[in-house]
Structures are given as C-alpha cells and as structure tokens.
Design goal:
Length: about 475
C-alpha cells in the first residue's frame, strides 16, 4: 500500500502503458505543465533572487561608499562564487533524486537522500572554505594590481567563513524543492534579506552605532546571514510535521554509500557549474587587469546579469523537478513536454526582463554608482542584455531538464566547450587583441551562451526520445 504524501500535493496516477510513445499533447497537458511550472518556480525564483539581492545590496551600498572598495569586493567574490556554485552543482543530485522518489511515491527514499547528503555537504563546505581562504595567491598569479590583490584577499577570507552555511542551506532547500515544498526556503530568504539590508548599511557606513568597515562590513554581513539561513532551514527540516514519513531523524549511518547516486549526479553537475563559474571568474580577472573602473563596471553588469539569471534559475529548478517527477513515474512523453515547456518559457521570460535594461541602461547604472567613468562603461555593456539574457537562461533550463532526466556527463562536455573553449578565448581576444575593453568580455559571454543553449537543446531532444530505464533501487 502506498502512503499519500503529507505535503499537500496529490499523487499522480501512473501513465497508461498502452499510450502512444509519441502522443499529441492536448491543451490541458500544456496548461497543467505551465501552471505547475510557475507554481513551483515562483517561490523558488524568489529564494534564488534573494541570494543575489543580497549581493546587489552589497554592490549598491559599497559602490556608493567607494568605487575602489567595490572593485576589491567584486574580485574577492570571483573565487568564492566559483567554489560556492561548484558546491551547489555537486549537491544537485539531492533535488533530482528527491523528485524521482516523489514521482515513485517512495517517501522514505526521499528522506534518505537528504540524510545521506548532509555529511557530504559539510565535507565539501570545509574543503571549499580552505580553498577560498587561500585566494590571495590566485589574485597575485593572475596579474591583479597589488592593491586589489591585498584587499580582495582579506575580503575572501571573511567570505570563506560562510561557505559551509551556504551549502547546508542549499541541501535543505534542494530537498524541499524536490518534494515541491519551496515555500520554507523562500520565507527564510526573505527574512535574511531584511536583516542583510540593515546590517550591511550599518557595517559599511558605521551607522546605528556599528563600526565603519567599508567592503569588509559587507563581507562580514554575508557570512553572518548565510549561517542564519542555514540554521533556520536545517531546524525546519528536522522539526517538520512529516519528518516520520520521510525518516528524517534516522541518522547518517552509511552516508557515503547511500549518497553514491546523488554524488555521481552531482559530480557531473558540479564540474559543469564549476567550469561555467570559473570561466566567468576568469572574465572578472580579465576586467581586473584593465583597472579599477573596468573591474567595477564588469561587476555591476554581472550583478544585473546574475540577478536576472536567478529568475531563469528558479524556472530551471522547477523544470528539473517537473522533468524528474515524470522520469520517476517512467512517463517519457510527459517528461519531454515538461522539459520543452520549461526551456521555451524561460527564454521568453528572460527576453522580456532584458527590455527595461536595454531601454534604460543609464538609469540602471546610476543605481550602483555615481562615478561617471564607471557609468559610461557599464552602459556600453547593458545594451547587450537582450542577447545574453535569453540564451543564458535557455541553456540553464536545458541543462536542468537534462539533469532531471538523469543525463550526467554530456551536458558537462557541452558546458566545457561553450564556456572554457569558446567564452574565455573569445573574451580575451575581443578584449585585449581587438581592444574592445569590457564590451569584448560580454560579447564573449553572448557567443558562449548561444552555443550552450543550442547544443543543450539538441541534446535534450535526443534524450527525451529514449525509453526510460526501469528503476532498480540504490546502487
């Protein structure tokens, strides 16, 4: 006898075995997928946006405090963000396998995914904290000016303290999202942003009786907030009413073997996201070589790109869950439909979001700084966002659909080609050989995103036509 879920969702009936492998999709199936996509994506998007809104608040407050301090903070974030996003990729298997278990209505297996992932999460967090702590040598060997290398290295140490917390929060959020319960993560993120706004301003400017720390104040705020978020969401998972249904408190024994499937999915996703973020970090370091104005302008433009990308990431995460649930039911046509709806919807939404930035680049730039030179450079790249937003969002939706369908290394190879072998060389050549400056970096990003979005869509077309193998249990 199958237990009903305790999360307010109805169990989905198994597909008709006699159904055609290539059915025509009636309108009600499309409407259902769109409805479920946005219902799940909205709170996930708010939670993802919250992560970047904190960075945007940092950028606005520090940018208006001092342009040089903003450059230090932007460079410090490059290795931290690269490692954090790599860690998030390594934990992607938690969301995917939880959604597969939900599709099978195997609630104990869903809880086991979280229990086995937690020790692994802490292990990754400790390792990445150490690497971020040592970031100053990276700034030195990549040719950053001495002033930037010294100040950014100190900020990276402060940011590294929040690394384990960021990953603990991610594991808990992924588990809840895989169960289609994204609201707790969203609520925690909203609370964190309210605290961040007050504490950030206080520590940067020395308001409310707090010490004036400049960019260091923003870095300390980020670490404190990340630990607050992690502890709140961890407490929620441990104390939620349905913890018995999922076996949340059964302990962590056998976690390494039990996390094998999630880790193997995560290895590919982590390598993929690590390569992508490392490539973007390389572009930040290219901008640093151009000087303080270029580094500040690149950071502002990337903050806007990253902020809007969080909308795409929310839609992509919802796409992955929808595809994963259909995969868990072994419903291939529904899996394909979920993936394509997620891909096309994400690209359309991202294009719409790019229009105000394209029309009012000067106004957007003034939100972050009053430095005339920084504003002029920033405006020259914000007009490229109608090209970059849809393709960057589309590639993320496509790769999320592939992960939900259990595809591991092919998406990673496509990311390797797009971001390591296309974006970095193109960005370098356009920036330094053709002397295009910061706009050259963003033309490289646009080219790589187009290659990735196209290649990953073709790959999903192939994968979604294959029969789904029978479930054989943990390996």
């Amino acid at each position: 006898m199958t237990l009903a879920p305790q999360d307010g969702t109805a169990a989905t009936p198994p597909p008709d075995p006699a159904a055609s492998p290539t059915p025509l999709y009636p309108d009600n199936r499309v409407k259902r997928h769109l409805s479920e996509l946005f219902r799940l994506a909205l709170p996930v998007t708010i939670a993802r946006l919250g992560m970047l809104i904190m960075a945007v608040v940092d950028t606005i407050i520090v940018g208006n405090y001092d342009s040089a301090e903003l450059a230090y903070l932007n460079v410090a974030h490059a290795p931290f963000t690269s490692l954090m996003v790599t860690g998030i990729g390594l934990l992607t298997g938690v969301m995917i396998l939880t959604s597969h278990a939900k599709g099978r209505e195997d609630w104990q297996a869903a809880g086991a995914v979280w229990r086995h992932a937690m020790p692994y999460t802490i292990l990754i967090g400790i390792a990445f904290t150490f690497l971020t702590w040592q970031a100053e040598w990276l700034f030195i060997v990549t040719g950053q000016p001495d002033e930037i290398a010294t100040h950014a290295g100190r900020l990276a140490i402060i940011l590294s303290i929040g690394m384990p917390a960021a990953l603990i929060y991610t594991t808990c959020a992924f588990f809840l999202e895989g169960l289609q319960r994204p609201l707790p993560g969203m609520i925690v993120m909203i609370i964190a942003n309210l605290i961040n706004l007050v504490l950030d301003y206080g520590l940067v400017y020395g308001a409310f009786g707090l010490p004036e720390l400049g960019a260091e104040g923003a870095a300390w705020t980020s670490s404190v907030i990340r630990w607050t978020m992690a502890l709140i969401l961890l407490a929620y998972v441990l104390l939620m009413k349905s913890h018995d249904l999922y076996g949340i408190r059964k302990g962590f024994a056998g976690w390494w073997r039990g996390s094998r499937d999630a880790r193997h999915l995560g290895y590919a996703a982590g390598a993929s996201q690590g390569m992508e973020t490392s490539a973007f970090a390389a572009m930040q370091l290219f901008a640093g070589r151009l000087g303080v104005v270029a580094a500040a302008s690149y950071g502002i433009a990337m903050t806007m790109l990253a902020l809007m990308f969080m909308v795409a990431l929310g839609l992509a995460s919802a796409t992955s869950v929808r595809v994963g649930i259909a995969y868990g039911r072994r419903d291939r046509p529904d899996m394909a439909l979920a993936g394509w709806i997620g891909y096309l919807t994400t690209m359309a939404v991202m294009f719409v979001l790019s229009i105000p930035i394209f029309l009012f680049p000067d106004g957007v730039s003034h939100l972050f700084t009053q430095d005339v030179a920084v504003i002029a450079t920033t405006v020259s790249v914000l007009v490229l966002m109608p090209i970059i937003f849809p393709t960057d969002g589309g590639q993320n939706a496509a790769i999320s659909a592939l992960r939900g369908a259990g595809d591991k290394w092919a998406p990673t190879i496509l990311h390797l080609v797009s971001y390591i072998f296309v974006m970095i060389p193109a960005g370098y050549v356009l920036t330094f050989v053709f002397e295009m400056g910061v706009p050259g970096l963003f033309w490289g990003i646009a080219l790589a995103s187009l290659v990735a979005a196209t290649g990953l869509a073709i790959r999903f077309a192939i994968v979604s036509r294959r029969p789904i193998p029978a479930y054989v249990g943990p390996q």
